[in-house]
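Hey, can you fold this one?
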Amino acid sequence: MPGKLNDLIEKSNSTMPAEIRQYLNQRGISDESVAYYKLGYLENHDGHNWITIPIKNTDGEYYNIHLRKDPRNQTDGDKFKAYLSGLGATIFNLETLTENDDSVVICEGEMDAIILSQLGVPCVCSTAGAPTFKDDWIPLFQKLKRIFI
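Sure. Predicted structure:
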């Protein structure tokens, strides 16, 4: 699956509609961050269109894609979901913890993490939302001097 997942990430990033890029820009996400994080757009997956947010594992390889409902879609239903179900939560922007030993901000979601990163603030979030934090993650934070939530 890694090859197919990488292909999907590349295709989603390269075919992002201008309206979605404009939406991300209006939210404060720069074109440079769209490229760096390989944000993209997936049409008609499970009958909906989604903004794609690729997620890396601890080895730095793409592990899954977090889907955020197209903001133009005002229907009921999931606002967020995982492309591959059943893999569980992980940490978004995980490399921040290996590249930094001073401080980190744990924020609510990927969009917040991307915006804070643009501002030079080291930050991470859970891919399953604010209330999710696994005990297995504690060692990843132990070398840090300060943690802000």
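The mean pLDDT is 91. Let me know if you want another pass with a different chain boundary.
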